[in-house]
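#structure-requests
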Amino acid sequence: METTTQSATSTSPTVNAFQLVFHIDAFFLALAGVFAVFALPRAVARFSRAAEWRHGHILRAIPLKRQAPKPPMRSVQSPPSGPSAADNLTSDESHTFHSEAHLIRHPAAKEEGWSLPPHVRAWSSRVPTFANILRYRLDVSFSLGQGLVLVIYSAALVYAGFLKSNPFADPLRTGFVAISQIPIVYLLATKNNILGIFLGLGYEKLNYIHRFAGTLLVIASNVHSLGYIYEWTIDLTFSKNIRMPTHIWAFVALVTVDLIYLFSIPFFRRRAYNLFYFSHVVLFILFLPAVHAHVPSVWPYVIAAAGIIGLDYLIRFMKTRVFNARIRPIPDLMLTRIEIPQLNAGWRAGQHVRLRVLSSAMGWIGWAESHPLTIATAAKTPEGMVLLCKKTGRWTSRLYDMATVAGYESDEGAYGRTVQVMIEGPYGGPGHCVFASYSAAIFIVGGTGISFALSAVQDILQRDSEGASRVKIIEVIWSVRDSACLTPLVPQLAALIQQSIYAPLKISVHYTRASDNPPGKDFLPPGLTLTAGRPKIAKVLDAVMSRAVSYGSNVKSSMAITGVVVGVCGPTGLGDDVAQVISQVDARRRWAVGGIEMHEESFGW
């Protein structure tokens, strides 16, 4: 937005603005490269297994192999006969008895059958004290480490904007600063960004940088524009300059970037998500040609941003599938269960997809909305992909109502309704963290976060049956408001416990709302408990660490201790509580167990 008489490449005799901002971007690129190098050992370990190359990238349907019938649950030495022997065992003892009996015949018991995933400790486990400091939460879901990233980012841009320059007297410099950040803002806005691939992070983990970078771009653009408006007003040349085509395009670009910021505030994100989303798409596209028409010399930045966004949409198109899905309501949980049995491969446990329901019942534009949903099943299972959608807003309420009024379909005799859906993904997930490579796994979830735990546990058990898991102990802690939420999932949870023949699985459900008629505990299988009140996460973590170190009268006792992974998914703030508990673990105990790593599943646009 510079005047025609001022150079587009220099703002002072000693500083070239174009070269300065180029070097700032090179600094950001080098900094990202440093983080990528730190993540490289875990990436190499993960992709050393051929199976990791086939999962987590493209959804697909594959024929499933017929599974051999499961062996009867008996040990090599026959257990005491009669029901009284089993009745004398507690739930944990009964489960451990059967589990250890099967571990004798674990596929990994024979050396030639071993297929254990390699484990590389994360840097947070190697330097736990430093990691605890960085994990400290400054705000809800915002850590000190994230704050330091934003401080470094803003300091670099302040340096570029103020080095031998006064933004109020030299508005051209801030214009170049704003333009230099366009590719970064566009890169971090994409679902398939190169930075996330090299860092092993999903787009949702980098979204906070995108929002901050976008805010700084808006500030720099407005300071740049106001500086020239001030100059033109003082020189009495405003009317003349505002008619120039390059300056008209400058204001078009300014309006688009300001509108993007306006529709990104929490009010529009929560109350009018469609306006937020479509304004981003349309204005992002309009912004680039406006900037190029304003300053043609900055075409490399415009081309880079256009290439980034174009590549992202191409990959998103390649990752999109259309299937028929059955939707069924689960009233106790107030959610809709979405089943796509034809889609059964291509994702990793913990990943999510973006769902569109192609039905007029979703409203005039509801069919065009996409919502992120965590996959609730592991890949390569007979049930295929299952999604759980909580009834929270207008779109989710319409989906729930559509499933509720469906009734029984006459052609198949099954409850629910068949609808056509568009699935895009998979996205997110644990990155270079492989749950099956740890000695113990804890999943702490709340509400519909159980989807994350279900898929992760199912995946570990599936790998364990193939002799491809180091996990000795699995613990799931599920917090719900009402105890009735447990009832519809009891069969599925019981099935998982029964399948955990090589690694004991314990599921603890905690309800926080008082109930006049809580479900009886007699119908719960061994390994599944129901308790009133909030879970004592610190106590559970301490018990799991003790068991991970000492547990072993079986083939897994000879395996090296590879740490504890803690997966978190649920309401805002749950991750903060878990992070605080982990940071309070004694350093000696943390070292003895091989370290504690935390993965938090969260969403972002």
